[in-house]
Design goal:
alpha+beta; two-stranded antiparallel sheet; about 15% strand
């Protein structure tokens, strides 16, 4: 499951994939970031040179950390500070799993699994306090 969250902790887009789809899959990234512009902060799993160039042409600037085997690269201080706030995305995932009961592995049908995920996403939108990078 791919999840796009804005700075206020609101879910913008969700995409479901099979387990064998990598994070840095170019087609999946184009699909989920379609019609979005600005800065995208992601983890190191999204590093893909072709995807970075393709997204840059569409108006998105993909900002990730660097892997251990990569050379250091210059980054704006504001981007570096916002990259440190990426933990807010992980807190959204944690809230979905703990509060909204997203993680349930013994579904009897795929439809039931999708309904469970949809119900968790709907329950998340009704929460009063969402994580934000401004707190």
């Amino acid at each position: 499951m791919f999840l796009v969250v804005n700075a206020f902790g609101e879910i913008v887009k969700v995409s479901f994939t099979t387990a064998n789809v990598a994070d840095n899959n170019l087609q999946q990234m184009i699909k989920i970031f379609n019609k979005l512009q600005g800065l995208v902060f992601a983890d190191k799993g999204f590093i893909n040179q072709n995807a970075t160039q393709e997204l840059l042409q569409k108006g998105l600037h993909l900002i990730t950390g660097i892997r251990a085997n990569m050379k250091n690269k210059l980054m704006l201080l504001s981007h570096k500070m916002l990259l440190k706030k990426r933990g807010m995305i992980e807190s959204v995932n944690d809230i979905l799993k703990t509060v909204c009961d997203l993680e349930h592995t013994r579904h009897r049908s795929p439809v039931n699994a999708l309904i469970n995920v949809f119900a968790a996403l709907c329950a998340y939108t009704f929460l009063e306090r969402l994580p934000s990078i401004f707190k």
